[in-house]
Amino acid sequence: MAGGAVAVTLMHGSSKHKIEISSEQENKEPMLQDMARVIAQVTGVPQQLQKLIFKGKSLKEMEQPLSVLGVKSGCKIMMIGKKNSPEEEAEIKKLKDFEKSTEQLSHKLEEINGELVGIRNGFLAKDLQSAALNKLEKKVKSTAEQCMKFLEQIDAMSLPEDFSDCRYRRKGLVKNVQTYLAQCDVIESNILQELEKLQSNNLALAD
Predict the structure, then answer these.
(1) Are 127 and 174 found together in one domain?
(2) What is the pTM of this model?
(3) Which residues form a coiled coil (predicted)?
């Protein structure tokens, strides 16, 4: 058994599983979230749908080490929860595809912001800055439009009440896209400030 690992017996319905839990971080003792991750792999029940019970008490503090919760090798853990239906899994796949697409928005915003920082730090000739800033403004507006389209598409997904895993994932996805949309607003505001500075400087030189 790996150093720091904890071996427990998992009771799930009529099934019994011997599982070994170790931390994903080197030289760290396993936490409750590590156990939930292993249980999800073994049973197919998503972490957010698991109800973990130890000695009659519900385990909920995911950031707590197992040792603090009193869980050690040889203990028995009961889990209540069920796998997603094939129909829900199909919807989850759609959401995962959305997640991959929205990650590209994050990379795009990082690139735009990096270019803006470069212009601010004087890495571009003065006579080229205005055109470059206008180009960045178009890019950030295009990214904001993509964010809005994603939100519309995600909102259009019809998810039954009992698709709790799907609803949980969709909520997180919407939150991420809204964060990217807010970043678009901040970056666009910074671009406009730089354009105003350039215009003011040009007017001052003209005078």
Answers:
(1) yes
(2) 0.66
(3) 95-153
**In this structure, what CATH number is given to the domain that contains residue 100?**
1.20.58.120
Q: Which residues contact residue 181 at a Cβ distance below 8 angstroms, ignoring those fewer than 6 apart? A: 144, 147, 148, 151
* Residue range of the domain that includes 73: 5-80
Residues 84 and 78: their CA atoms lie apart, in Å, by 19
> What are the helix (H) ranges across the chain?
32-43, 86-120, 126-155, 164-206
Are 198 and 133 spatial neighbours (Cβ–Cβ below 8 Å)? yes
In a shared domain, residues 172 and 135? yes
Encode the chain (207 residues) as per-residue pLDDT tens digits: 444 789 999 999 889 999 999 988 877 899 999 999 999 999 989 888 899 999 999 999 999 999 999 999 999 999 999 888 889 889 989 999 999 999 999 999 999 999 999 999 989 988 899 999 999 999 999 999 999 999 999 999 999 988 888 998 899 999 999 999 999 999 999 999 999 988 887 766 665
Report the candidate in 93, 106, 110, 91 with the shortest Cα–Cα distance to residue 159.
91
Q: Which sign, positive or negative, has the C-alpha torsion 150, 152, 153, 159?
A: positive
- Please indicate, yes or no, whether residues 169 and 108 belong to a single structural domain of this protein: yes
Q: Give the HSE-up count for residue 55: Cα atoms under 13 Å, Cβ half-sphere.
A: 6
